[in-house]
Write a structure and sequence with these properties.
Layout lengths: L1 H15 L15 E7 L3 H11 L5 E4 L26 H18 L4 H5 L8 H13 L4 E4 L2 E9 L4 E9 L4 E11 L5 H5 L4 E2 L5 H4 L19 E4 L5 E2 L14 H7 L5 E6 L7 E6 L7 E6 L21 H24 L5 H7 L3 E3 L20 E2 L26 E5 L4 E8 L6 E7 L5 E4 L11 E2 L8 H7 L2 H21 L8 H10 L17 H10 L18 E3 L2 E2 L15 H13 L13 H10 L5
Parallel strand pairs: 1-2, 1-6, 2-3, 6-19, 10-11
Antiparallel strand pairs: 4-5, 5-6, 7-14, 8-12, 8-13, 9-13, 11-12, 15-18, 16-17, 20-21
């Protein structure tokens, strides 16, 4: 055992030397940790960092050659709606991105402008930032290229006792921990532990979801690659034919081009869709002239292929490799055809050749991502199931989504699905099961992270939700927030020596608020405000529901900034300087009484802010 571990340590050390400041510490003599995180996705990294900052020893294990999940594998145009919805470790990550470009290129540089306030970066830069955040934590050990082989259960299968992994050389490594966190996109650890889960869509009647199908099925969202591309000739690499390329697979495109149903290979969009193009270029550029390429929603030709990815969630390594290669052959082979085939009209072909992969990205992988965009796989059946109902308002006079006093994170994007099946031919057919549903910002309860029958497992990525609910949670900024909450929850469980199902939720929330992580959306009290913690505490208790009616329809966004990004949602302001009305005073005094707060010092408050600060000062949460 020690020989194989030391050998793995040497391999990791060699790899680490290529990344300044990164030290993959493997404590060969003590393969026992406070917390073991499987999956160095953004959610897994935030869980690791969050727990380590509370002094916990953490082993982070990643099965692929590249940590960071989709954020370091091409998804550089992140899915959030408003900057007011960004908090916690994700806000810190963005701040580090911004600082990186300022330090390297100057505060007024085009590169800094193109970060869009730190939210957009090149994949290699995102990788560097993630590695740096991990390297700063002396209690963190990172293992890459190590796949889960099995788990050992104890206490009547209610606890995970240990997990065994196999590295790229075939050597086994066993580790024990008090808490385990499954941060994989697929939910591989939870499945190995025998935790119940779902694959596919629930019937509309199961949770009363209008976006769900009439009958349940096994369909999951389509996958595709998020390609990083450029039109800069100095950095452009044109597509090469992938393994197994067959031009006959793509000749049906010629008819669509001739009939002008498809007019271009690429379309730059600042939002929306162009069904006459194939490769969607997100219109906000990345620094240094790069762009994030995605599936064209509701297009005639799609990069996402729900018709061939249904076996991924429960598939073994060989099955997933086959699906991966089929997507690669399709997404890249189609581009090679459009750029090179003599039967493609010359003008179309030449326009397609203006775009190519980035020479300085994924340099050891033919400039292609190491991971495919797994939008949905397994979903745990947990203590609470997040559904469409969690993002809706139950009153026509309420601007906010339904309250969740046990919230540990927020989201502001809304359920969206790129399709779960395909009708008709590969080219010219249509996806089914596709929807894009606006809603107000929503709270996410702790119970979606917790299994029902395993006392020491947290699941921030393949979390407990219906298919429709997962379509609101399946976004990297939200997964980072859920990972951060998982790290805190794991720490609290160890600190209090209790099973995860019994940890004090207010304690988790207080620690999150200290980390500037939001549990309720507020548009006018940001993470840098001195009132942030008090506002988050009071709002999560329910103090802000009922303050404002919708301005227009429910889920109305603010004015558009550009693309999919907007100014703050209206109706979500706290207005601390506003005089306290008699009705609101009565409501807030009742809420204070429920929290055991002496009402007498609160009665003289004249404004919302005075009341809230006084309540915070005399509360147990302070």
């Amino acid at each position: 055992m020690r020989t194989s571990v030391r050998r793995l340590w040497l391999l990791l050390l060699v790899a680490a030397l290529n990344v300044p400041g990164f030290d993959a510490r493997l404590r060969a003599e003590e393969p026992d940790y406070d917390i073991l995180v499987y999956g160095a996705t953004p959610g897994g990294i935030s869980a690791t960092v969050s727990a380590a900052r509370h002094g916990r020893t953490v082993l982070l294990v990643e099965p692929t050659p590249r940590l960071g999940g989709l954020i370091t594998n091409g998804l550089s145009h992140p899915d959030f709606r408003t900057f007011e919805g960004i908090s916690g470790i994700y806000a810190e990550f963005n701040g580090r991105i911004l600082k990186h470009y300022r330090d390297r290129y100057g505060a007024d540089s085009q590169q800094v402008i193109d970060t869009f306030h730190g939210t957009h970066s090149e994949p290699e830069v995102a990788l560097t930032i993630f590695r740096t955040m991990l390297a700063e934590q002396p209690t963190v050990t990172v293992l890459e290229r190590s796949r889960l082989k099995r788990v050992e259960m104890s206490h009547g299968r209610r606890r995970i006792a240990a997990a065994e992994f196999q590295n790229a050389d075939g050597n086994a490594f066993r580790a024990t921990a008090r808490i385990f966190i499954d941060a994989t996109y697929e939910g591989d650890l939870l499945a190995a532990a025998g935790v119940p889960y779902r694959v596919g869509r629930e019937a509309r009647s199961e949770y009363g979801e209008s976006l769900a199908p009439a009958e349940s099925d096994r369909q999951v969202q389509g996958y595709n690659f998020r390609l990083t591309m450029t039109a800069d000739p100095a950095n452009r690499v044109l597509a090469s034919p992938p393994l197994g390329y067959n031009r006959d697979d793509y000749t049906p495109l010629l008819e669509l081009i001739a009939s002008r149903q498809i007019t271009s290979a690429f379309h730059v969009t600042d939002g929306g869709s162009n069904p006459k193009a194939i490769y969607k270029i997100h219109g906000i550029p990345l620094p240094n002239g790069k762009y994030d390429i995605n599936d064209m929603s509701r297009g005639l030709v799609r990069l996402s292929l729900p018709q061939i990815n249904g076996d991924w969630p429960d598939g073994d390594e060989a099955a997933r490799r086959s699906i991966f290669e089929n997507h690669l052959r399709d997404n890249v082979g189609m581009l090679y055809f459009l750029q090179n085939d003599a039967d493609v009209p010359e003008a179309f072909r030449l326009a397609a050749r203006e775009w190519g992969f980035c020479r300085d990205e994924f340099v050891e992988n033919e400039h292609l991502p190491y991971q495919i965009y797994v939008r949905e796989a397994r979903r745990m059946i947990g203590v609470k199931v997040f559904t469409q109902n969690n993002v809706e308002s139950h009153s026509e006079n309420e601007a906010r989504a339904v309250p969740a006093s046990d919230a540990i994170a927020i989201g502001d994007y809304g359920p969206n699905c790129h399709g779960t099946a395909h009708e008709g031919p590969r080219f010219g057919g249509r996806h089914t099961g596709e929807f894009y549903h606006p809603c107000a910002p929503y709270q996410i309860p702790l119970g979606v992270l917790l299994p029902r029958e395993c006392d020491n497992l947290l699941v921030p990525v393949a979390c407990s939700s219906s298919h429709v609910g997962f379509c609101a949670l399946r976004l990297e900024p939200i997964w980072i927030a859920l990972g951060e909450a998982s790290g805190v929850a794991a720490h609290v469980a160890i600190e209090s020596d209790q099973p995860l199902s019994a940890i004090p939720v207010p304690r988790v929330q207080r620690l999150l608020h200290q980390q500037r992580a939001a549990t309720i959306y507020t548009s006018d009290v940001g993470i840098d405000s001195r009132d942030f913690r008090a506002v988050q505490w009071w709002g999560t208790l329910g103090g802000f529901h009922g303050l404002n009616a919708p301005e227009g329809k429910y889920g109305q966004r603010g004015t558009n900034l550009r693309g999919q990004y907007y100014r703050a949602y209206p109706g979500h302001q706290v207005e601390l300087d506003k005089p306290l009305s008699d009705d609101l005073r009565t409501h807030w005094l009742r809420l204070a009484s429920e929290q055991g707060i002496d009402a007498q010092p609160l009665r003289s408050a004249r404004t919302r802010g005075e009341f809230l600060r006084a309540a915070w000062r005399f509360s147990k949460a302070n």
